Amino acid sequence: MERQLLSGNEAIALGAAHAGVRVAAAYPGTPSTEILEAAARFPEIYTEWSSNEAVAVEVALGASYTGVRAMASMKHVGLNVAADAFMAAATTGVRGGLVIISADDPGIHSSQNEQDSRNYARLGRVPCLEPADSQEAYTFTRLAFELSEEFDTPVLLRPTTRVCHSKSVVQPVEPAAITLTPQFVHEPAKLVMLPGAARGRWPKLTERLEKLAAWGETAECNHIINGSAELGIITSGISFHYAREVFPEASFLKLGLSYPLPERKIKEFTAGVSRIMVIEENDGFLELQLKAMGLSVIGKAAFPRTGEYSPDIIRAAAAGAGLTRPGNPAAAGDTELAKRPPLLCPGCPHAGIYFTLSSLGHRSVLPGRQARPPRLTICGDIGCYTLGAYAPLSAMDTCGCMGAGISQAAGMARAGLPEKPLAVIGDSTFMHSGINSLLNAVYNQANICVLILDNATTAMTGHQGHPGSGVSPAGERRNNVVIENLVRGAGVADVTVVDAFDLKAVRNAVKQGLAAGQLAVVIVRGDCPTLTRKRGKPRLVNEKCDDCGACLLVGCSAIQRDEDGHIFIDRSVCVGEYCTICQQVCPRGAIVEAETAS
Amino acid sequence: MNGMNILIVGVGGQGVVLASNILAEAALSAGFEVKKTDTLGMAQRGGSVVSHLRYAEQVASPLIPAGEVDLLLAFEKLEAVRWAHFLKPEGIAIINNLMLPPLSVTLGTAAYPGDAAVQAAFQRITPSVHLVPGTATAEALGNAKMVNTILLGYAVRFLGIEPAKLQSIIEAALPARFRQTNVAAFEAGRKLEAID
Question: Confidence class of residue A597 from pLDDT cuts 50, 70 and 90?
Fold first, then answer.
């Protein structure tokens, strides 16, 4: 077969397709999103965006119980949501191969924390495979399905951001010929985990682990590269390639199966080298196990405990610990340069609501004016709209994990916060786990105001569907849930729907929601401009403009100042009449449609 | 033919990732081992974007170590300065003559480097700095979004990859309705001269 240049995520999908996977479920999350998107290009695979990661694992597990191969993919924090389902799968084991992919994000490129999913492998006594590049992403995915069936276990595949989003060459091999008819075999002792049955299963997990460790002794995915007898490096994942870049002469034990470890192979390797370094991102996961084997290794004492690695970081850390000489002292970058954080896009329906919260909440001030102490407590959540936390909007006070904003606000209200708290959540996040929090708020009579920002998509990760949008991963129509009906059905009496681009209506709805003596939900609805790609007649600034800068407080990247301090609008990115937020904000009426300007 | 380390930098929405994908496919079809990786924060809405591309007989890390970049292709001046230190001595910098001030600059809390500061940042490293009117050329051709194709056209003279090969990959990567205009943009880029 022809070699291809693929991202790690595309390679995982291709590997799964070639392994004969039939069902793939996921909730989008960077860096894992493209796995399901790529899987959706294979018509023989049923793909779905599940409402959250626990649901995705349960869907895949159910499919596996019928004997077909299935997978669930998510980002690391999603595995926390799916932890209960993951442990259930670990306990019952599988019928058809089941692969659970948790993409870790060392360096926190696009997440709320850094966490090492390999720890879940140990928790569930489940094998963990760590691909280092796209070729391994392809090969290990196929291997994972085989291991899953051979050892009656789900397999955790742990790529990291740099593997998911790097492209490298993949040489695919012939697809597996798997023809299976889904069939459920009744076996309560394996699948119904009442205590009596569960007690029978649990020791089997330990036996499974021992068999897997024995398999790992001779498995090709754990391989030795002979080099210098002075320095041996034990490593896994992308760190292998970084370490090869910095220490081309060293001997390597590259572990593809990072849990459980092959003790005999490790001791054989370490006996042949005089100094051993362990180079791994995130936790000292391998290091701890190696030390438990009684080996003397240099790991996190020399190399960073947090953050993403790179050849530069490995070289600097090794040099700092006296393990190598420093490389070419490259000129350091200029840290004084203006930073460029991401922003809400021009025409974003969230801009108006955040401008409203920012002004009602005393968050932003015109240049030259005195800042006031902030008002309003705004509990945020995860998605594009989290960008409302950045200046000039600065309208978000908490952000923890998916769906947490509503419950945090409820907790604050119940704690006796004198001011009614606000919760801001996107439509996809609401479907993911916000609905649970809302049910709780209804039942426990939390006096809060919930703003659901509905742009009809999961925008942050690239416009995936969700139960409110009714679009499948392959772009087909599916049923959709109407948010206001759902909210009313949950028992919320005070529900308002407003147009996101009508600032007056938005302001009134927020004020009413805050004034109401009960739980109020405001649904702020407007299309995501990067999904619809509608381009209107751009706005421009006319001679009435006194450059006060009020429009800049919207935080729209289309509005700028020229070198002389005059405000202008970048016509190439303004979406015109589909937004007009700046036009509504301008105190002098100086922003107008381009064609009508004199 | 020798391999290269190429760093492409710019602002979200400018087409950095597409340009790097096209170059990577061209290097693959030229027979190289290829690795590339894009660094994007928070799904990148108007933030900094940097793409590492390496091709050679053998490539280990997809990330290029600082000081080892042969060619820096910058779509914007501030981003060019941010990544200047990745160039090797005598490496080549191609900088699109475009200023996109981040919001902090517009709001007056940070400063945008002046042309003298841009020059000074590169002077320490390499004499091979090419400031090119990519955006102006794209606008003259009718669409500012074609700046990535124009810059690829300009860069091809340094790549060791046949221009015809690169052009065919550009054509294959784009939907039919953008093909002809982008081929014209690529041609314009090939003829483009740097600003003195």
Answer: very low
Calculate the CA dihedral of residues A318, A322, A323, A329 and round it to 10 degrees.
50
Q: What is the pLDDT of residues A147-195, one digit of tens each?
A: 999 999 999 999 999 999 999 999 999 999 888 899 999 999 999 999 9
Backbone φ and ψ of A386, nearest 5°? -65, -20
Q: In terms of CA atoms, which chain B residue is nearest residue A314?
A: B65
Burial class of residue A205, CB neighbours in 10 A (0-12, 13-18, 19+): middle
- Measured between CB atoms, which of A162, A327, A342 is closest to B12? A342
Which residues of chain B have a CB within 8 Å of the CB of A391? Answer: 103-104, 107, 109
Task: Find out whether A276 and A298 touch, Cβ atoms under 8 Å.
Answer: yes
* CA A544 – CA A242 distance, rounded (Å): 57
From CA A90, how far away is CA B145, in angstroms rounded?
49
Task: Characterize the bridge pairing of strands A222-225 and A250-255.
Answer: antiparallel
Reported in sequence order, the residue ranges of A352-461 that DSSP labels E, i.e. its strands, are 378-379, 422-426, 449-454
Nearest CA in chain A to B67: A330
Nearest CA in chain A to B124: A331
Check pLDDT > 90 for residue A327: no
Residues contacting A72, CB < 8 A, separation 6+: A24, A25, A26, A50, A53, A56, A57, A59, A60, A82, A99, A100, A101
ipTM computed for the complex: 0.93
Is A340–B48 a contact, with Cβ atoms under 8 angstroms apart?
Answer: yes
Whether A165 and chain B come into contact, CB under 8 Å, resolves to yes
Q: A182 CA to chain B: closest CA distance, Å?
A: 38
Cβ-defined contact of B40 to A561 (cutoff 8 Å): no
Question: What is the per-residue pLDDT across A247-264, written as a single tens digit (0 to 9) for each?
Answer: 999 999 999 999 999 999
Report the mean per-residue pLDDT for chain A.
Answer: 95
Q: How far is A337 from chain B (nearest CA, A)?
A: 7
Report pTM.
0.95
Does the structure show a pLDDT above 80 at A365? yes
CB A574 within 8 A of CB A529: no
CB contact under 8 A, A337 and B61: no
Structure tokens that stand for A346 in this block: 């021009």
Q: Which of A425, A435, A451 is nearest to A511 (CA)?
A: A451
Residue with tokens 């390679």: A11
Q: What angle do CA B80, B81, B85 make, to 5 degrees?
A: 100
43-72 in A: which are within 8 Å (CB) of B?
none
